[in-house]
Amino acid sequence: MRALFLLLLLAAAASAECDGCLVEGKCLPVGMRVEGQYCFADGLMHEQKAMGAACENSFECKKGACNEGACVNVVQKGKGWWASIKEFVYRIFRIRVVKRI
After folding, report:
1. Exposed, middle or buried by CB within 10 Å (0-12, 13-18, 19+), for 61?
2. Which residues of 87-97 are buried (b: 16+ CB within 10 A; e: fewer)?
């Protein structure tokens, strides 16, 4: 019983020095992703969330990003990252792409 108390006391003292998550003696900042988990503001590591799951931050999602409170895929199927960025810029500036024959 006394050993458990000392262990909890040491863990509390170590976490007081760390503003993120204490993992294997290292302090990870909030938002750091490690092997399918992320450091959250509560000081604990949490499993990353699947598409469609509720979220507050993009680091919570396995793939993609957090948008309007849910994990979403930011790259549309069949398109690469660069093609999605170009399409986004074209929409912002209302650029029309004319295909040459």
Report:
1. buried
2. eeeeeeeeeee
